[in-house]
Amino acid sequence: MRILLVEDDPLLGDGLRAGLRQLGFQVDWVRTGDAAERELRAEPYAAAVLDLGLPLRDGIDVLTAVRRAGVTVPVLVLTARDAIADRIEGLDRGADDYVVKPVDLHELAARLRALVRRAHGQPQERLAANGIVLDPAGRTVLREGEAVMLQPREFDLLHVLMLHAGRVLSREQLEQHLYSWGREVESNAVEVHVHHLRRKLGAGLIQTVRGVGYLIAKDAPAP
Q: Each residue of 55-69: pLDDT tens digit?
């Protein structure tokens, strides 16, 4: 799950990025409002963590601008501003959640997962398709009730496809969802991960749409 972190404090930003990566997120980190708006307009992030007290341009202005531009990515405001009026303004300007610093890292991760679930119309914490059950919090996968061990990137790819069940995603789209900045991507990485997932979870789970990409059907037949 690829997210954007917007935080100008170098110590806090580095700690959040490292901690969220350990919890399974792919994190891009920017420190200014202008960079945040540019990335939110250009990249398909699953969610964003937005500080408000940014240099030169306030986070509220960034939030207002991207919402007016039609950007629908879930945004969690993480800020030191704890007044009720600030919370109301943040939510009214388009924030999906509002958290006051400091925050427990595991709580932050749980809130992000909840935002992503709601954005994809998933009411339950676990995702299920074709006899496969995926738990984003525990990063576990069951096939017909039996645990299946996946490599981290295999899990991330399966998570993305299950979140977008019924929709075809191209290789380029999958790479954008899976890899943060500075991560070297082999030209056939997605194909290799798909091959491994089919071997471990059944050949019928992930379908190939020739010339387009891959999908997991909403009502796929059992393997």
A: 889 999 999 999 999
Cα–chain center distance at 127: 14
Distances from the Cα of 169 to the Cα of 60, 88, 174, 199, angstroms: 32, 36, 6, 20
Residue 163 · residue 116 · CB < 8 Å: yes
Q: Please state the pTM of the whole predicted model.
A: 0.84
Report the distance separating Cα 15 and Cα 205, nearest Å: 37
Contact status, residue 161 vs residue 206, Cβ threshold 8 Å: yes
Cβ proximity of 123 and 130 under 8 Å: no
Q: In angstroms, rounded to a whole number, what is the distance separating the alpha carbons of residues 175 and 190?
A: 7
User: 123-153 burial string, b = 16+ CB within 10 Å, else e?
Assistant: eeeebebbbbbbebeeeebebeeeebebeeb
Concatenate the DSSP letters of all residues of 187-209 into one string. TTHHHHHHHHHHHHH-TTSSEEE
Pick from 151, 133, 130: which is nearest to 142 by CA?
133
